Phospholipid/glycerol acyltransferase domain-containing protein
Amino acid sequence: MNIWKAILTWPYLLQTYSKSGSMTRKVLKDPSLVSEAKRYIWLKKRVRYIKWLYNIKLTVHNIENWPKRKGCVMVANHQSNFDPLLVLSVNDYSLYAPLGFIAKEELKKSHLAQRFIF
């Protein structure tokens, strides 16, 4: 990670962290308060920032083989805890079915993952 990128964009990081907490509380109280599409688009923007911050470049092959109307199971190899977010960033909500994930047990203990994933 480029430390200067993080330092220069700390207000954005703080705003994202605050907004994720308030959105999580709203969704836990009543899931219909914030639509799934709005949450999905919001999270994709934040993942784009994470990719920029950590200089992550993704190359996608055969995305046309993803199911358009049916659900599917996405399995990440968990090289890092960012794997589900990176898979999410590849999916286009308007073309393909929304994604869901089965997370590893350790992520439930992570405060950051609770704000963004659960």
The two ends are 25 Å apart (CA to CA). The chain is about 50% helix and 0% strand. The helical segments are 3-8, 10-29, 36-53, 83-90, 111-116. The chain has a mean pLDDT of 76.
